[in-house]
Amino acid sequence: MKVKTILVSQPPPKTETSPYFDLSDKQKVKIDFRSFIHVEGISVKDVRGQKIDLTKFTAIILTSRNAVDHFFRIAEEMRFKVPDSMKYFCQSEAVAYYLQKYVVYRKRKIFVGNRTFPDLIKLIKKHKTEQFLLPSSDKLKPLIPTELDALGVSWTRADLYRTVVSDLSDLEDVFYDVLVFFSPSGIESLFHNFPNFKQNDTRIAAFGNSTVNAVTEAGLKCDIFAPSPETPSMTMALDKYIKVVNKK
């Protein structure tokens, strides 16, 4: 079946240069965006319940923009002035760049990985004597604590925000040819909102192995996968798939 409509389970792009817009124009398909999940901050009271003392840490491990936002939110609400000597270990350039929202970049000790956590571990290894704080959501990839424990550094996890399923009830009678997911939480949200969901002719696109596993464990078929050597991005994977099925 041809692809005419796609729903991407993420917020709309903030710039007009998104590859999704290029894909829409190129393949003449309608692409909508909708967050299947959203993030909510955990209260200071609950953070204190985790026995988190921000004064004890000399370094922060930041794996996402959400981690950046909620670390500085909690610091402000706890009236904790982050010292200039604090070291920041950012998983990617995007996270490090976002950090500039809160700190003067050139005056801080900032270490940047190459997108994956194992890459960041190589930098953390050079600073093993630091006391590390890991701001995280309630859902943390198992790889992260495993890598940190294996390294033998002193680190503490702080749950500062949680992933919550969004209300999608208005989509109950809306159907798309392709649904695009980027995390297991997206699949969880799909069935939370629509417990009786049947895939039928809907194609499922999944980014990352954990998302693909969530798709198959839910009894669905993954038709489009990224990243791969041929299609490192989701838009490239969608483009390749649409070229084939829309020619029929």
Task: Give an account of the 3D structure.
The protein has about 250 residues and is of the alpha/beta class. It folds into two domains: about 5-35 and about 170-245, Rossmann fold (3-Layer(aba) Sandwich), CATH 3.40.50; about 40-165, Rossmann fold, CATH 3.40.50. It has helices at about 20-25, 45-50, 65-75, 95-100, 115-125, 145-150, 185-195, 210-215, 235-245, and strands at about 5-10, 30-35, 35-40, 60, 85-90, 110, 130-135, 155-165, 180, 205, 220-225. Helix 8 (about 210-215) links the parallel strand 10 and strand 11 (about 220-225). The mean pLDDT is about 95.
Task: Give keywords.
248 residues, alpha/beta, Rossmann fold, 2 domains, six-stranded mixed β-sheet, five-stranded parallel β-sheet, 9 helices, 23% strand
Please specify the SSE layout and strand pairing:
Blueprint: E1 5-8, H1 19-27, E2 30-33, E3 37-41, H2 44-49, E4 59-62, H3 65-77, E5 87-90, H4 93-98, E6 109-112, H5 117-124, E7 131-137, H6 143-151, E8 154-165, E9 178-181, H7 184-193, E10 203-207, H8 209-217, E11 222-226, H9 234-245
Parallel strand pairs: 1-2, 1-9, 4-5, 4-7, 5-6, 7-8, 9-10, 10-11
Antiparallel strand pairs: 3-8
